[in-house]
Structure formats: C-alpha cells, structure tokens
Amino acid sequence: MTNIKGLTFCLCLLGCGFLSSFAQKAGEGFVNITLNDLSAFRQPGKNWSIGSDVHADFNKVGFIELIKGAGMVVNTAAGDEKTSLVTTSELGNVELEFDFLLAKATHASVFLQGRYEVHLSDSWAKQVPHFSDCGGIAERWDESRSEGNRGFEGIAPSMNVCRAPGLWQHLKVTFRAPQINEKGEKTANAKFEEVYLNGTLVQEEVRLSGPSRNAVFSDEKSMGPLVFQSDDGPIAFRNIRYRMINTLNVTASGLKYRYFKSDFKNEFPDLTKFNVSSQDTLSQLTGNVGKGDEVYALDITGDIKIPAQDNYTMSLLTNGMGRLYIDDQLLIERITSRWNNRFYTKQVSLTAGKHTVRIIYVKNIGGQKPALVLSIQGVNTDRLDLTDKGSAPARDVTDPIFLQPQGSPYLLRSFLNYGDKKLTHTISVGNPNQLNYSYDLKQGALIQIWRGEFLDVTNMWVQRGEPQLAIPRGSVTTLSDAPAVAILSDANAAWPDSVAFDELQNKGYTLDDERAPTFRYVIKGVNISDKISTGSVLASILRQLTATNPPANLYCRIASGVKIDLISEGIYRIDDKSYYVVIDKKYKPLLRQTKNGYELIAPFENTPNLNYIITW
Questions:
Q1: Which helix (H) or strand (E) holds 206?
Q2: Of 50, 90, 405, 536, which is the most buried if we count CB atoms within 10 A?
Q3: What is the biggest distance separating any 2 CA atoms in the chain, rounded to whole angstroms?
C-alpha cells in the first residue's frame, strides 16, 4: 500500500549543505527579457512571433492561436522554417526562470549557453518519465561508442509534473557554467544545480561532462546565450528573466573577541555590567572560542572589506541569542531561549571598502553545542559564509518519510497549510496514477489537486509529530476552501466564504470497489454525497455530487478565478490557464462576474446529480 523511506539519523553540518537556501528580495537583481518585439534575439526566423496571448486546446495536436499584441514570444511552427531563438545576451552562472505553454504533442527545449539542454516536451499524464520528457536533462551522444551506448548522461525528472497542453507552466533553473582557465582549459564541468518544474524540484546537482546531443555549439565556454528551440510543434514563452550569479569576495580583518562567563538568562545582557573573563585575537570569525562552559557570551569585533557597492543580505543564525552590528548600527537581533534553525536576515546597502562588524553571541542554552553562522549575499552573487565551518550547528537530521500509494488509493487524515491558514479537518487522497487531492471535511471543499508523488509525512510520524502537517510532494494547483454547495437567494447572490462549524454535519465517507471515496455530509438540512475519482477519466479528476431532495436555489460552485474562459462547448479554462473544467451543458452552468473575478456555478435544477471533470 505504501512506500515509506526508513528513519535514520545522521549528523549534518550547515556548512556542508544543511539550511543553505537563501533568497534575495523577489525580483531583485533579475533582468527581464523584453518581449515587446524580437530585438532581444539574434536574427529570429519567421517561425517566431510576438503576441499578447495564445490559445491552445488539449485535444488538438499542434494547435495554437496567437493573439495580436505584445508580451510573449511564440513559435507558431508554421511553414518549413524551424529556426531556434537565440538571445543577444550571453550568460554564465545564472538563475533563469520563465513561463511556457505547449500545444499538444510539442517537443521543445531550452539550452543554457546554447549547449546544455532541458526538455520542455508535452509529457502530460506520463507516469514514468524519460530524460526526453518535460524537465529532463538531454543526453549526450558519441558515435565512437558501441551501438546502444552512444547516448549517455540523460537524466529523467524525478517525477512528472507536466501540465496539460494549453496551460501555462513554469521552469526555474540554477545553472553553473563550466570553469575555464586562462589557457582555455576546462577545470570544472557545467552543472544544473537545481531545476524546478511547476514549483517542484525535478533535477538536482546534475553535472555535465559536455554539450547535449543537439546543442547549437559543440565547444564549452564560460559564457553563452540562451537558446529556445522547438523541433516539433508550437510553444509560447513569457516572463523570461534571469539573475547572474557571481562569486563574492569579502574578507574579514582585525578580528578580536571578549569572553564573558556568567549565568545568562533569557534577556539580552548588557555586557558592560559583566567582567571580561578572557580576550584575544581571531584569524577568522568563529563561535568556537568557548572554554567548555554551558553558557557564556562573546563580543566579537573587526572589519569586513566589501568589493563593490551593492545591497547585501546579511543572515545570522545562533544557538542562543545574537546581535549583528554593521558600522555601529544594530542590523539583526535574535532573541530566543530555544534552538531553532531559522536564519534572521536583513538587507543593507554597503559601499565598497571597509566596514566595521560586531557580533554579540550569548549562548544561553545549556546541553547543546554552540552555533554561530554569519553569511552575506549580494544581489547578483553567491552566498558567502563569513564564519568558519566549525561554527555551524551539528544537529540530528531525520530522513524524510514519503507516503506513496501502491496499487490502490491511499487516504490520510492530517492538518494542511492553506495559504496562511492551518486547516484541521482535512483528508488527502493519493492515487497510483499520481493524481492526488485534498478535501476539507468541514467545508465540503476540494481545496487542492496535484500531479506527482503523494505526501511528505515526516512532520506527522517522527517523534511526537506535533505539527501534524502533511506536505504535498508534487506540483500543487490550489482551488478554493469555500463550500462547494450552497443555497442562494438567487443566481446573482454572493457565494459564502465558509460554512459555520455547526451548519455542516459530517457523515464520514464510503469507498467503492476501487477505493474511491464518497464524502457525505448534511448542510442546512440537505444530504450531499460528493464522490471524487480518477480511474475512469484520463489524467483528470471526476467529481460527482448528489443532493437528496434538493431545494430551490441549491447551487454548486465549480470554479472561481480572476479569469474564466469558455474555449469550446463544455470546456472552461480557469484563472490564467491554470486548469480546465469540463461540464455538460445539460447542467446549465452559469459563468458570472464577481467583485473578485469570475465564478462558474451550476444549479441542482430538476436533478439530484451534478458531474464535472477537472483536467490539468
């Protein structure tokens, strides 16, 4: 039924990769490629056009319709011309992201530096992905190898989270260029550090010994252009942006410390009221100058040399309390009496040259090793730890526990995060075909759907499992936490945001022969059955609602969003091409405008049953 990774415990140093994720302010340092025309690209072919929007149909192979305007670039795949789109800009170490939309059966790619290929092919509903599927790293090719071994180093995505044709998807890549010395010799391979497809990590630490099989360039350099290619079928791109990542060289000098031994409590101490136990100089910023005491304080001062004026993000982590001063100004204050692994961060504008730095570290937590980590990151640089690796915390790290259905659906009750809310009466259903969803039992709401692997239940099943949170592992599409069924005064009445706790009486659920659940509840005296299944519909969820003796003006809200389009009879595209809803016209669906956008509702009019399909 389940595939659960066993529990092991290991010591993991922060400096070796634990808690190494830091981010600048959203969008800072990014360069947007202008798509009002094709001037950002070298000699674009006639198969590339600028437009304001596109329409595609998940049922039609190779179909895409371009809407006049600006803001996106589209390969219409019209005629015999199949030129690639090559940027005028050349990039090295880079963080790249963009949206893309595929027509059905399209095979496309993006090449970092014109050499290292990530596939963007239509892989919708494929359960076991290949390296040539969406998010896969293309293979290399060597004709001198024996037959059957000429292709090598192709890496499939860890899971298939490709969405249906005609929907917008998102790719985010952190790429490291090969290192080339002054003699033109390669000293380190190129690397895809991370590849995220639709918000899900599908590739990590993939090293590349050379260019991909169909690369535009066969040599290797430290800089090169982006190349967008579509060998077969239309594709659209928008919101293309990148952030260059340079090495940051910050040095510290004139370091010295004062050491205080005392019984420090939970309030930040005024060290002028304590005697200095010892003092000395330091060759590097470190927290490892304790004298074997359980609690103590350090006052470290010195200078840091900044290479260029920039906005720098400073991050501080302490096992205990800490303060960071830059140029005698308090920048970060961390006051805690318990260990937690959260960095406190603050951005500061620094000019080139020397700046004074002061760290007050108060280890007021007994029974644990000291920890002091200070890092700095520029808008277009890597993060640099200024403290030595020995100052990083050594902690027990638990291997994650992943829950994956085997052979039949798996149902799990848990808490779930929904935006800034923690929902407490939820159940998640995982299917072997990797179509999964979560349901709020107190609202009768289908709150989220996702494609890919099922749940991370580490927070539930390790030790006391206090958070009780289940975390989806695939690419999540968020729906609504409002009730699916409501009695309205008329078809124009506002939809309720929620149901009062005592207005919905949950009656549990039943399972059919395929273990698909039917959730049962009573809302304002009306008996509702809500069956959700995946087995009978290809790559989609079928929802079947039944109301016993439905009263007048009983409605089902099928979808809500900023924008809803009717693209063909019975097929609606929801919220900036996020997912599709398919509903028969016999249910008389009504598309109506609200203060927040649009809603698709349908009445239980002269019928106790209402069925529709969600496809994404």
A1: strand 200-208
A2: 405
A3: 86
